[in-house]
Amino acid sequence: MPTTEPIQAVAAGATGGSYRKILTYTAKAIGTYVVNNTNFAGVGVYLPCLILIEVDATGGATATIDVSTDNGTTWKILVSTVASAGLMVLCDTASTIRVTIAAATADVRLFVV
Q1: How far apart are CA 110 and CA 69, in angstroms?
Q2: pLDDT digits 0-9 by tens, 9-20
Q3: Which CATH number goes with the domain that contains 38?
């Protein structure tokens, strides 16, 4: 018989939780950040993986979540927001994902699946 794990009311990062980890980066400065361990400390141990990227761009910030499939030569905007937006992306070696923040600081949360 298989082992079952509860998923209801389990904290992120705990066995059976919906997300293995939630990483929070408050007041991320204006800039362009590729999703890697250099720009988002702690995410590197989970790569490659699915990540729900949530950007809280309230307070005057604007933000985009972009993808490149040619090592950063060209970028395609997946989400552009002036409020709060989230997007589930696959962070692997076939594509590069980045978060661009403009106009003001923004909070970024990475929900690692």
Answers
A1: 21
A2: 666 666 667 788
A3: 2.60.120.1300
